[in-house]
Amino acid sequence: MRQFSVAHDAALAVLVVGGAVAIVGPRRWPGRWVRWFAWALAAVIFAGWAGEYLADVIEGIWTVQYSLPLQLTDAVSVVAIIALLTQAQLAIELVYFWAFSASLQAVLTPDLASTFPNVFYFTYFCYHVGSIVAACLLVFGCRRYPRRGAMWWVFGLTLVWAGVAGLGDVVTGGNYMYLASKPVHNSLLNVMGPWPWYIAASAVVGLVMFFVLDRIAVAVARRDGVRVVAR
Fold this sequence. Notes:
Layout: H1 6-28, H2 32-59, H3 72-86, H4 89-108, H5 119-141, H6 150-172, H7 197-224
Helix pairs in contact: 1-5, 2-3, 2-5, 3-4, 3-5, 4-5, 4-7, 6-7
């Protein structure tokens, strides 16, 4: 899929509109519909995430090298569904930091060989865009801001997940989380040096992104008059 093509721009437009609705709607018109919207969004994310694996099997392209749920966006999708259905604070914090870093990067620089109207176009953007909209809804729409210090334990869990993905790469010969090699499409990793230095550089960039996201959440919470408590 070509970056910023008409199909890509359409997905970005859905993200902007969906994010705006998720933030503004619950603030101006709180009510039971917000819960229904969360359930519907969880269903969309699940349909896209699980549907992609089902399509891999149907198309006969499922392989252990590329099709195991070891990408960080796989974790984001599952956590987003849990957060939307349960409103659990731990899940909300995970989806906030992960969606606005990993999922947003995946939407801006999609690693997708297919384009509209291929089924993989819809599955890919359903769970990537859906996870970001979920973060918008839960954190900024419903004002469930991350607790103080949440960025550190989320970063720690990110490193743990990277370790699991790295083990998967060793066992399967795959490239989960791009730990074995950079993606062929344009991405932030392209400016971080050769392997393995870009892995360390991406960890530093990720921590900086988490810090910025944490400061944004604190600032918005303060403006809303919401006290951010410690974990």
